[in-house]
């Protein structure tokens, strides 16, 4: 039998994929102000439907889950209808698509939230970080600590978004537990100073993530649920000094749940990865027995190597998919990649969004 390659088909949970060149979630800030995706998003995702799996841009599960200008939502029927056009277009091309469910927690700004609302967080500690508003980059606003009695309704928002994801035709959902947003804030000891069942010990700081995953799995089935983590990610003011203690526990708990996959941001654009962090990522990866998606700075060769060695089921490519809609074919045929234009990453119109041509 030939070894698994980036171009091998396979099953990830309940989803059959045609290759292992997945599309990573990419925020593009081009939705309507009320969170409804615009028609051009349908064209954008359709152009990228040769990916084995598309994971959508992060999508807020509630008005308070929003932290940047013009990001999409999935918390009402209007949103679901717009997403349905996108999933239908992707399915018509024989593609597969999961939606990334997002709550930003403290990475938000008052101007982005309903009047009178404050960002929520595990504890009332402002992030030393910025977000993108109507006025450009601005410091994040002071959050308030979510009350213990509010947590069930927060979990319900994830479940309800999953129900809408089903009706919108998604193949599954990815719970965003990475990059310094709400679920990551509960995991991180510098933002979580709670004294209830959601703070303190490793088990307590992991609890919200796991309860969200269980609620979402209950709604759609564990085999259609993925989760994204960033164990060494310091983006958005996250302290990772005890990652080697908490993440082995989290990986084990996820493994027991037999999810579709665990997706890990192993490196960040432009950031050096210290040796100790590399080792931690490798040790965690080799200990994990479920489907693993690797992400962060992979090119074709490194992607081939990790899939070939069996250490990852697939690789998620982020920036390359912005400017190479037909990335799997380019890898397969050895066609040079187009560099993305960073000035059109966040916000704007079709330019730098749907006007990168396929080379094949
Ligand atoms: C423009 C842009 C938007 C991003 N948006 C998201 C997002 O919505 N959700 C997420 O988990 N990561 C997001 N990321 C991180 C990427 O998914 C990915 O982890 C990162 O780009 C590293 O992968 P790469 O080297 O293949 O680009 C974003 C990155 C970029 C450059």
Describe, in plain words, how this protein is organized in 3D.
The chain is globular and about 55 Å long. It has a single domain, classed as TIM Barrel. The strands form 4 sheets. An 8-stranded parallel β-sheet has the order 3-14-13-12-11-10-5-4. A two-stranded antiparallel sheet has the order 1-2. It contains 10 helices and 14 strands. The protein is 32% helix and 16% strand. The protein has 360 residues and is of the alpha/beta class. The model has no long low-confidence stretch (mean pLDDT 97). Bound molecules: flavin mononucleotide. Flavin mononucleotide is lined by residues 24-27, 57-58, 100, 176, 178-179, 228, 265, 269, 295-298, 317-319, 345.
Class based on secondary structure composition and strand pairing? alpha/beta
How many structural domains can be distinguished in the coordinates?
1
Our count of helices gives 10
Percentage of β-strand residues: 15-25%
- Identify low-pLDDT runs: none
CATH first level: which class? Alpha Beta
Shape: globular
* Count of extended strands: 14
CATH topology name, in short, is TIM Barrel
Q: What's the structural blueprint in terms of helices and strands?
A:
Elements: E1 10-12, E2 15-17, E3 21-23, H1 39-47, E4 54-60, H2 77-92, E5 97-102, E6 120-121, E7 130-133, E8 136-139, E9 144-145, H3 151-167, E10 172-176, H4 182-187, H5 202-220, E11 225-229, H6 243-256, E12 261-265, H7 275-287, E13 292-295, H8 300-308, E14 314-317, H9 319-323, H10 327-333
Helix pairs in contact: 1-2, 3-5, 5-6
Bound molecules: flavin mononucleotide.
């Amino acid at each position: 039998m030939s070894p698994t390659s980036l171009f091998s088909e396979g099953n990830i949970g309940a989803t059959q994929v045609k290759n292992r060149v997945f599309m990573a979630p990419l925020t593009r800030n081009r939705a309507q102000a009320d969170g409804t995706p615009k028609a051009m998003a349908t064209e954008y995702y359709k152009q990228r439907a040769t990916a084995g799996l598309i994971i959508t841009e992060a999508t807020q599960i509630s008005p308070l889950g929003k932290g940047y200008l013009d990001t999409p939502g999935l918390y009402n029927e209007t949103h679901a209808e717009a997403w349905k056009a996108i999933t239908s277009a992707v399915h018509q091309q024989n593609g597969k698509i999961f939606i990334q469910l997002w709550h930003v927690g403290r990475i938000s700004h008052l101007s982005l939230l309903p009047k009178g609302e404050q960002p929520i967080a595990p504890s009332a500690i402002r992030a030393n970080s910025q977000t993108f508003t109507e006025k450009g980059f601005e410091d994040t606003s002071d959050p308030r600590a979510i009350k213990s009695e509010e947590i069930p309704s927060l979990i319900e928002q994830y479940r309800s978004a999953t129900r809408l994801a089903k009706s919108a035709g998604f193949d599954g959902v990815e719970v965003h537990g990475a990059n310094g947003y709400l679920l990551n804030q509960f995991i991180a000891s510098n933002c979580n100073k709670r004294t209830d069942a959601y703070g303190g010990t490793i088990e307590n700081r992991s609890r919200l993530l796991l309860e969200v995953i269980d609620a979402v799995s209950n709604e759609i089935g564990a085999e259609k649920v993925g989760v994204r983590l960033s164990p060494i990610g310091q983006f958005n003011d996250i302290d990772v000094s005890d990652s080697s203690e908490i993440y082995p526990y989290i990986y084990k708990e996820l493994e027991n749940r037999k999810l579709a996959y665990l997706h890990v941001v192993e490196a960040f654009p432009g950031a050096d990865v210290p040796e100790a962090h590399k080792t931690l990522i490798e040790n965690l990866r080799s200990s994990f027995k479920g489907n693993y998606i690797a992400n962060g700075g992979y090119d074709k060769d490194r992607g081939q190597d990790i899939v070939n060695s069996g250490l990852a089921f697939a690789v998620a490519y982020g920036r390359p998919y912005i400017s190479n809609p037909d990335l799997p074919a380019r890898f397969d045929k050895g066609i040079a990649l187009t560099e993305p234009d960073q000035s059109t990453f966040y916000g704007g119109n079709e330019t730098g969004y749907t006007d990168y041509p396929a080379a094949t």
